[in-house]
Amino acid sequence: MDYILGVESTAHTFSVSVMSSSGKILSDSRNVFKAPEGSGIHPFEASQSHIRAAARVLKEAVEESGVPLDSMAAVSYSMGPGLGPCLRVGAVVARTLASSLELPLVPVNHAVGHIELGCLLTKAKDPIVLLVSGGHTMVISFSGGRWRVLGESLDLTLGQLLDQFGRHAGLASPCGRAIEEAARLSDRYLRLPYSVKGNDVSFSGLLTASKSLLDEGASFGDVAFSIQETAFAMVAEVTERALAFTGKKEVLVVGGVAANRRLDGMMDSMAKRHSARVGVAPIGYSGDCGAQIAWTGWLAHRSGIRVPVEGGAVRQSWRLDSVDIPWRD
Amino acid sequence: MYRLRVLDDAIRRQRTVREAEMMHSARGAGVRSPHLYFVDPRGAAIVMEYIEGERMKDAVDGGSPKKVAGMFRRLGLAAARLHSAGIMHGDLTTANVILGGREITLLDFGLSSHTTRVEDHAVDLRLIKETIVGAHPGFSALALDALHEGYSSEAGPGRSKAVFTQLKGIERRGRYARVV
């Protein structure tokens, strides 16, 4: 059995995980930066929080796993995409470990990480992936050696839509859970713009209209319900189009917003019409975590992917459809 | 139904009316689309001509490079004809194109609109490009060249350049496209 360590620090979460080559998560420790109420993630402040927590999180993850550091096969880290100051914290930790322990350093694309961990945990083989988080809103399918983007948001991500709406109502990021809970208590649909363009979606008009409704005195719960129903139906529709187009029979929902039960329910009823199976990453592993990096790091390591320590930089902009995936065919 | 009833009804009714109207306009622009027999907006149903042929999506998968280039050239030409008439198709994937003999027929006008904006026309081409890169990656370079060629032959070099430049701009707006 081999073991690998993964470091995630793309945005608000700094996390270290140890996994075995059989796909078992031996540990996954985290520090989650919490923004003040009404504001979003300030990259520099989040990175400071990660720096303060890094040693503790690393120590916790290694101790809990029971695997001594010098028994790791490799050290993997999230190279991007994400917030520069945050990414750099993880890169420094990973480079330090790789260099002092003389282990291979394996760069991982964060988005690929969400997908591969989702596949592992839901046993999905060749799914249409809906990746919905603060950083991504994409419909993805594997073909020709890469994860290909079939559709995406033309402006805000789904996570940003929910967060910016929530913050307008005075909540602190991430606001998804508070919005979901408020929405559950309403069934009053207020008309909002629904914008699907081919396989792509656009959320900016929806955000503006939802904020205006709040300003005009509509109840938070009713708008929360309406924004969810509209936005989730839009992503369900483009996912359905991808299913129909490719003829694939599995759907995988990953990313922070995958934790939303209403979204998952909608994806379920959509997929049923195509006799497709829906897998949703378990709540603790749908959002950012070290395990997504450790597992994908293992797959990459096994395929011989590594960078020299001096090449272990970060890439704030690194689209997942530019990453070769040699471990899939 | 995964969508809320009230939302679903509104979307379906709107798209049914839109589709019927735009199929008709497309033929006026010189692009073949099925003849309409009957439209029921309330039931969100359209009865239309049956088109004999093969879905372009399937034809591309098994096609020779020469044939595939021909298909995308004709698709580019059809897109340019629609655009010249101020029509954006809105759903130009290879699944919505039927090949029969030398003719191509476009289907699924439910997301169409009347627009002459360069941005909207570029969105149309972007979807074809997403389809090519996402579903037919083996033919990427060849198909994109042929699409461009077909489009330019109808739209003219000036308009074609404007639309394809806008397409690049849209792609740069995509998340994590290389801008930083």
Task: Provide a descriptive summary of the structure in words.
The complex is a heterodimer of chains A (329) and B (180). The radius of gyration of chain A is 20 Å and the shape is globular. Chain A has 329 residues and is of the alpha/beta class. The two termini of chain A are 24 Å apart. Chain A has two domains: 3-110 and 288-322, Nucleotidyltransferase, domain 5 (2-Layer Sandwich), CATH 3.30.420.40; 115-285, ATPase, nucleotide binding domain (Nucleotidyltransferase, domain 5), CATH 3.30.420.40. Chain A has helices at 43-65, 84-101, 110-122, 158-168, 176-184, 204-215, 220-246, 261-272, 283-286, 290-302, and strands at residues 3-8, 13-20, 25-32, 74-80, 105-109, 128-132, 137-143, 146-152, 196-197, 200-201, 250-254, 277-280. Chain A contains ten helices and twelve strands. In chain A, helix 3 crosses helix 10 (290-302) and helix 4 packs parallel to helix 6. In chain A, the strands form three sheets. In chain A, strands 3-2-1-4-5 form a five-stranded mixed β-sheet, sandwiched between helices. Chain A has a five-stranded mixed β-sheet with strand order 8-7-6-11-12, with helices on both faces. With 180 residues, chain B is α+β, with helices and mostly antiparallel strands. Chain B has a domain at 53-173: Transferase(Phosphotransferase) domain 1 (Transferase(Phosphotransferase), domain 1, Orthogonal Bundle), CATH 1.10.510.10. Chain B is built from six helices and seven strands. In chain B, the strands form three sheets. Chain B has a three-stranded antiparallel β-sheet. In chain B, strands 1-2 form a two-stranded antiparallel ribbon. In chain B, strands 4-7 form a two-stranded antiparallel sheet. In chain B, helix 4 packs across helix 6. The termini of chain B are far apart. The mean pLDDT of chain B is 93. Classes of the chains: A alpha/beta (329), B alpha+beta (180).
